[in-house]
Design goal:
The complex is a heterodimer of chains A (363) and B (463). Chain A is of the alpha+beta class. In chain A, helix 1 (42-57) packs antiparallel against helix 4, helix 3 (101-111) packs across helix 5 (134-143) and helix 6 packs across helix 7. The longest helix of chain A is centred in the N-terminal third of the chain and has 16 residues, at 42-57. Chain A has helices at 42-57, 61-64, 101-111, 113-120, 134-143, 159-169, 174-182, 189-201, 236-244, 294-304, 307-314, 325-331, 347-356, and strands at 27-28, 31-40, 69-77, 89-98, 144-145, 149-152, 222-230, 256-269, 273-291, 337-341. Chain A is globular and about 55 Å long. With 463 residues, chain B is α+β, with helices and mostly antiparallel strands. In chain B, helix 1 packs across helix 14 (443-451). Chain B is globular. Helix content of chain B is 25%, strand content 18%. The termini of chain B are close together. The chains are: A alpha+beta (363), B alpha+beta (463). The A-B interface holds A 13-19, 21, 30, 65-66, 68, 98-100, 102-103, 106-107, 110-111, 131-134, 158, 160-161, 164, 174, 178, 181-184, 358-363 and B 84-88, 218-226, 298-299, 311-312, 332-334, 336-337, 340, 377, 379-380, 384, 387, 393-394, 396-400, 411, 413, 420, 422, 460, 463.
Chain lengths: 363, 463
């Protein structure tokens, strides 16, 4: 269900502006998920593609400077039936961050407004001005969806803890670890070019620009996968029940850093209505970040998933039983997007670093 | 409405726009067993309630009152006023203590003092202030007689007093004085824009709507725009026990001088001077502006202005208490981020000072702070500041909560003269003994509640 604000539409006068809480389902110890589908007119897709290319070419240091986002992915997806006017398109954002929902959006509005405008600027209802941020928060909450299942391989650690622990494990001192999260190195032209080429060629891979060598490990590949599969309408209730019963560590296999399952049965398109509109047929979003190239990751993941987890798709999604699960997910993946990652290390490396340096600032 | 008008001063309860300079206080939590008796009591009480206007004219004594959500229900406040009240206030402190405030271990609500738990029936808090100890006792007696006359009961009471080192200290720190760890308290109080207390420092000047209902806040929003809520505020009360002997033991465990370690933990010298500034002559009569500094960012190309800064925590540690309680420009987003999370503190110490040579904290003679703060949104302001105090990650010291306030074991990294020191403790230094969330209504609203005459109270005020 959409995390729709109680106010519904845009109240002209908010008598009791609530400080928005995190949606249940999006919280896992200190990690939070944010999933939002924001609609835009068809012609804005061209501008968004252009803007995404600009974002890929320019080093995205603004987000990296602040060390509160583990992974974030922007994806452009075609219109979903029943959710708006013909030709409308949706941009999907899936992020994993530490902090609270409201502070997250306030911080984005304060420090990333230029980048946000490039991505969300043409979406219906997106405030033109990010300050004050209350309207932006309200808009974000209107389009946010709660995860039905959310997993993180190291939910007890913040991004800064992870980065500092990785620096310590690679031989860095506590001072170096602190500098790694407090100082953004200046990038020379060669570094900028390399980063731009990497993001243009492999926009689905983590490439933390300007990170300490311990945070960005050579030879390690971390990729994102976003899959939207159609749910058989009459099985929607059963799917929800099934998702609610999944074990907390159901995705703790195959080198998965983070994973979410989100039922997409209603979305808001304020150009049509301030109330959530039904998606026909409903969808199931699977968003994950895992070790290796995307195809390798999908194969490894599907080989390791328990039968209970496999049934999420096989029993409830149209066409899922007809081929291998890995092939099904791969065929339904969304291709058009960009991934941001705060660090580039395998799940095993991150866990080992956190185990060795649970308090990475300590000498 | 953006400006506080002259007539609003007679409606706003005292101690909100500016702190009282009355050093003796008492707090009585009253159970409102019956709505009719409660309203009759309030009808008499309201004539004694001190307004901001009274405060402007000088005071020898002050009366104020605030209500919990259940208290408002019991007094028969119509549902149309109660329904839209924010969830934080409706739920109350105890319901949110574990998740939002990390009141765990000894601070768990299960360990709170009798009378201070939500189920103990404290629906109204009467706050009394006086110039002298005997005058305070007389006020308490008068308040108790009034409560008894209407067959209501007091479920909890406590007395408090400021512990000034000198009258100058009291004045320089905005009416607060020394708390039991020995620090001048309340040195960094925001001032409401448009009030007489508004200072020149932009960090201290805050939009009225951040604290007062019915006024514009920094986002341009007006919280509680109806006449009934205008000039009120939400009040947070917490009884915080301070373990003074344990604090002193920690100071002695470090090889640095005690007063320096204490200052590093807090971020200010005991007299209030911030560590970010060069070490001042603390015995000099002339003192610098206690708030004319910022923290600075290590990612900035250079200083934003000529005020002192300390982005690496060389003088004021990154995890120091004052960096968390009011991070100024230290957080991502800078002032735009922090300005929406300010609180107006109006607390007072309770209990006798622990003698210097006392070996231990005597458990029966509790001492600490009766913490009180005002804000327009408890979740956005008080609860966020509390979460900052318990989160080292935001301040680049992951795993290090506020050394003073963390309810469980804690560590803290401090630097001095190029060397790094590490403080450790197992037991808490501050323990929550109880508390609650209250509405501190305007005096007009108090009269409406007392007389059940709500005509005109629903009127929406112009934005």
């Amino acid at each position: 269900m959409a995390g729709h604000s109680a106010a519904g539409g845009a109240p002209a006068a908010i008598d009791w502006p609530e400080w928005e809480d995190d949606l249940p389902g999006n919280v896992l110890e200190c990690v939070r998920a944010f999933t939002a589908f924001a609609p835009m007119p068809w012609w804005a897709v061209l501008l968004l593609r252009l803007n995404l290319t600009v974002v890929k070419i320019l080093p995205n240091t603004a987000l990296r400077k602040h060390h509160f986002v583990y992974f974030g992915r922007w994806t452009l997806l075609p219109g979903l039936r029943g959710t708006g006017r013909r030709g409308d398109r949706y941009v999907l954002i899936e992020t994993n961050f530490n902090g609270s929902f409201a502070e997250y959006l306030d911080t984005l509005a304060a420090v990333l407004f230029k980048n946000l405008k490039k991505i969300w600027g043409h979406c219906y209802g997106c405030p033109r001005d990010m300050q004050p941020p209350s309207e932006f928060r309200r808009w974000g909450r209107m389009h946010e969806l709660a995860a039905a299942h959310y997993f993180c391989a190291y939910p007890e650690a913040t991004v800064k803890q992870i980065e500092m622990a990785l620096v310590r494990q690679s031989g860095g001192s506590p001072e170096e670890a602190l500098r790694a999260i407090r100082v953004m190195p200046r990038l020379n032209l060669l570094q900028r070019l390399r980063g731009a080429v990497g993001r243009l060629r492999r926009p689905y891979q983590v490439e933390p620009v300007g990170a300490h060598p311990g945070v960005k490990r050579d030879g390690t590949v971390v990729s994102a996968l976003s899959v939207l599969t159609p749910v058989t309408p009459e099985k929607l209730g059963a799917l929800r029940e099934h998702l609610a019963e999944l074990e907390r560590d159901a995705f703790d296999v195959g080198g998965t850093h983070v994973a979410r399952l989100v039922v997409v049965d209603h979305l808001v398109n304020e150009k049509v209505s301030a109330e959530p509109l039904p998606v026909e047929p409903p969808g199931l979003l699977f968003g994950a970040v895992g070790d290796g190239e995307p195809r390798q990751y999908v194969d490894r993941l599907c080989n390791a998933l328990s039968p209970e987890v496999r049934r999420v798709w096989v029993d409830h999604c149209s066409g899922a039983g007809e081929s291998s699960l890995a092939g099904y997910l791969w065929d339904n993946r969304m291709r058009d997007g960009l991934l941001y990652g705060g660090y580039k290390a395998s799940v095993a490396d991150v866990r080992a670093a956190l185990a060795d340096y649970p308090d990475p600032g300590r000498a | 409405m953006t400006a506080i008008r002259e007539q609003d001063h007679t409606d706003i309860q005292g101690n909100l726009l500016t702190p009282y300079a009355l050093p003796y206080g008492a707090f009585l939590l009253v159970n409102i067993a019956d709505g009719d008796r409660g309203r009759a009591w309030l009808d008499e009480l309201v004539e004694r309630v001190t307004s901001a206007g009274d405060q402007d004219r000088g005071l020898t004594a002050a009366w104020n009152v605030a209500f919990t959500y259940e208290g408002l229900q019991r007094l028969g406040v119509p549902e149309r006023f109660l329904r839209p009240l924010p969830q934080d206030f409706r739920e109350g402190m105890e319901a949110r203590a574990a998740d939002r405030l990390e009141d765990i271990g000894e601070s768990d609500p299960g360990c709170w003092e009798e009378g201070l738990r939500q189920g103990d029936g404290g629906h109204a808090m009467v706050m009394l202030r006086a110039k002298t100890d005997p005058a305070r006792d007389e006020l308490v007696e008068e308040a108790r007689q009034l409560i008894g006359k209407h067959e209501l009961t007091v479920v909890y009471d406590d007395a408090s007093s400021l512990v000034p080192e000198s009258p100058e200290d009291l004045q320089k720190c905005g009416g607060s004085a020394r708390e039991h760890f020995g620090f001048a308290d309340g040195c960094s109080q925001p001032a409401i824009e448009g009030s007489r207390a508004a200072g020149k420092d932009k960090y201290q000047r805050v939009k009225a709507g951040e604290f007062l209902l019915g006024y514009r806040d920094f986002d341009g929003l007006v919280t509680g725009r109806t006449r009934f809520f205008r000039n009120g505020s939400f009040m947070v009360f917490r009884k915080l026990e301070q373990r003074v002997a344990a604090f002193r033991r920690i100071l002695r465990s470090c090889e640095l001088p005690d007063d320096l370690v204490a200052a590093k933990i807090v971020g200010r010298w005991d007299t209030g001077e911030p560590l970010v500034m060069d070490q001042p002559d603390r015995h000099s009569d002339s003192r610098p502006d206690l708030n004319d500094f910022r923290y600075g960012s290590p990612m900035a190309d250079g200083p934003a202005d000529d005020r002192p800064e300390d982005p690496w925590g060389e003088r004021c540690p990154l995890g120091a208490h004052i960096r968390r309680a009011f991070p100024r420009d230290a957080l991502v987003g800078g002032d735009l981020r922090t300005r929406r999370h300010r609180i107006l503190r109006r607390g007072m110490p309770y209990g006798e000072a622990l003698p210097e040579n006392a070996p231990d904290d005597a458990p029966d003679e509790g001492r600490g702070l009766l913490f009180i703060c005002f804000n327009a949104s408890i979740a956005r302001q008080f609860e966020i500041v509390q979460s900052w105090c318990l989160d080292g990650n935001l301040f680049d010291v992951p795993g290090e909560p506020d050394f003073l306030l963390a309810p469980a074991e804690a560590t803290m990294t401090i630097k001095h003269d190029g060397r790094t020191y590490r403080l450790r403790r197992k037991d808490p230094l501050v323990v929550t003994r109880g508390g609650g969330y209250f509405l501190y209504p305007g005096i007009g609203a108090l009269r409406a509640i007392a007389t059940r005459s709500y005509a005109g109270q629903e009127d929406r005020l112009p934005a």
